Inverse folding.
């Protein structure tokens, strides 16, 4: 029965349990991977950056570092033997884009309508120089494009200079322009070798009206002396072959003329004239023959 106070002797008495939880700061921290390193490694600046990171972050960084090392370029050192140094440099240039041989380059020919002539032998020489200078294909492309643009610009300038020269001479010479130009060209070809003519063209002198007029004047004097025959321009429809052939045959038939008479004061000029006629006939005949 319950006592008057409402309590029972058979009831389980209440028990109060007091638990003391230690402070977190009092729990010792687990040792870090960094703490197990030798003192020499602990002071390394690179490892200092990973001091507070876990192992997974360190492993990921190591993998990325290996990728960078695999794709890196290692320069030769001072202690490398010449052969080893060259081998390392060749590997570097190959990685940068240089072909292993000069034949590995590709050099594009200029467009057909650019006016720039294509020289295959010159292109091969350029490849050899490019490889010696360790140029990449991209660098070769840039140089080739620049050279074509430069040559194209020079071609345009040369064409303009030629047209201006011809216009000036036509205004001065009038109907005799073709004959005088032919005479100037004949004089140049008779007295200048191919290299000199090429140099005159490259310098622009050949398109100078004053220079062309001087050649025509010299040629006129030489023609009057029988030392040169005028060019094809301005002659008859067959290029002057008929008239020149007639003169040649007439001289040959004149047994008493200066050509046959060594005592004649004009003998040397007559001989030179015949040589000039022979050359002119051969040239004009070749030019008139269809190819």
């Amino acid at each position: 029965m319950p006592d008057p106070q409402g309590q029972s002797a058979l009831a389980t008495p209440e028990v109060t349990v007091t638990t003391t939880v230690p402070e977190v700061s009092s729990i010792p921290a687990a040792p870090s991977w960094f703490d197990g390193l030798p003192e020499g490694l602990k002071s390394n600046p690179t490892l200092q950056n990973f001091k507070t990171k876990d192992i997974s972050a360190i492993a990921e960084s190591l993998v990325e570092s290996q990728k960078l090392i695999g794709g890196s370029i290692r320069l030769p050192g001072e202690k490398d033997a010449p052969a080893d140094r060259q081998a390392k440099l060749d590997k570097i240039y190959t990685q940068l884009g240089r072909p292993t041989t000069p034949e590995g380059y590709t050099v594009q020919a200029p467009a057909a309508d650019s006016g720039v002539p294509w020289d295959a032998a010159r292109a091969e020489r350029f490849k050899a120089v490019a490889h010696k200078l360790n140029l990449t294909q991209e660098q070769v492309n840039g140089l080739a494009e620049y050279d074509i643009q430069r040559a194209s610009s020079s071609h345009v300038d040369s064409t303009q200079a030629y047209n201006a020269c011809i216009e000036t001479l036509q205004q001065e010479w009038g109907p005799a322009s073709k004959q005088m130009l032919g005479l100037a060209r004949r004089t140049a070809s008779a007295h200048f070798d191919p290299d000199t003519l090429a140099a005159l063209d490259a310098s622009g002198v050949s398109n100078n009206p004053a220079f062309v007029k001087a050649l025509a004047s010299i040629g006129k004097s030489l023609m009057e002396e029988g030392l040169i025959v005028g060019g094809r321009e301005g002659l008859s429809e067959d290029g002057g072959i008929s008239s020149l052939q007639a003169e040649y045959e007439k001289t040959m038939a004149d047994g008493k003329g200066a050509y046959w008479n060594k005592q004649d004061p004009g003998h040397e000029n007559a001989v030179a004239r015949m040589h000039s006629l022979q050359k002119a006939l051969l040239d004009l005949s070749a030019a008139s023959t269809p190819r």
About this structure: Residues 231-240, 286-291 have pLDDT under 50 and may be disordered.
